[in-house]
Amino acid sequence: MSNSEDFWDKASKDYDKTEERFEYIHVKSRENAVRHLIENDIVLDYGCGTGTASCEFAKYVSSVHGIDISSKMIELANKKALAGKIENVNFEKAEIFDNKFEQGSFDVILAFNMLHTVPNPKDVVQRIWELLKPEGLFISVTPCLGQKMSFLVSIQIQLVRILCTFGIIPIPIRRLKSADIDELVGNGNFHTIESEELFKDASSYFVVAKKPQDP
Is the pTM of this model over 0.90? Predict the structure, then answer.
């Protein structure tokens, strides 16, 4: 098990509780995303966490496949799907770079609240491009820790940066801005069709981008 997997496994127990303070951003992001989903869509939820968004989106699409590197997150996600009797969602411990995923196999790929934590965001966006069908959608929301935030969140981020420096938190926490996300999406040859800056104690950036029919 990698250090990152172990970290997220430990975080899974209280993950939903720690995210409650940003519920406005989570709800708004899901409401925005739903407008772009259709009933025949095959969706990949990359970094699905405890599966809240996957279970919500399942009612609007053909199927949702949620993946996460944390087996504990996946356990909790499966419990949510079972409790909700949601049959068109499945969860799996996996990475987006796994060879099991075929190019051009998804209509929509979600990346919610995780691009600021991956080792190489450019590689992730490129992989998302590969896995999407032509005219497929990349829908993301990303905390922009280089922008406006409350004093309390600012103090928490400073603490997190210190813990990252000493390896206690074994994942990168980037201080991205909305312009950085725009650059990632644009350099990945996506066409942005919707974007919105959201704020609740901290800034987040919601984006819907399309892979063109002819690259």
Answer: yes
